Amino acid sequence: MPAGRCEHCGLYRQYLHRDHIVPKWAGGRDVPSNWQNLCANCHEDKTWQEQKSPAYRKFMAKAVKRGRRRKTLLGWIAWKLFRI
Ligand SMILES: [Zn+2]
Predict the structure, then answer these.
(1) CA dihedral in degrees (7, 59, 51, 11; nearest 10)?
(2) pTM exceeds 0.85 for this model
(3) DSSP string, 21-58
């Protein structure tokens, strides 16, 4: 990203990160209306806050469960067929 002002703290930075306002894991889409330019500090903070949220834990627990299920043959077949 080019240099500019962080949309969170308003400070001018040499490098900005493109952040997804609604994170992808929460169903956020990869479209300009879901992007904001953040400095590295604010981006890190936001990501950290998100990963502390119950929604993120739920998402990760689900992902782990899905991964575990795939290890059994029946689970793998179900996953292949229905993507559950
Ligand atoms: Zn910032």
Answers:
(1) -10
(2) no
(3) SS-GGGT--SSGGGEEEE-HHHHHHHHHHHHHSHHHHH
Q: Spell out the per-residue pLDDT of the chain, length 84, in tens.
A: 679 999 999 999 999 999 999 999 999 999 999 999 999 999 999 999 999 999 999 999 988 888 777 777 777 787 778 775
Is residue 77 within 8 A of residue 54, CB to CB? The reply is no
Read off the DSSP letter of residue 33.
Answer: G
CA of 24 to the centre of ligand 1 (A): 20
- Kindly give the distance from the C-alpha atom of residue 71 to the centroid of ligand 1, in angstroms, as a whole number: 42
CA of 77 to the centre of ligand 1 (A): 46
**How many Å lie between the centroid of ligand 1 and the Cα of residue 68?**
38
* Cα 9 to ligand 1 centre (Å): 4
Distance 27 CA to ligand 1 centre (A): 24
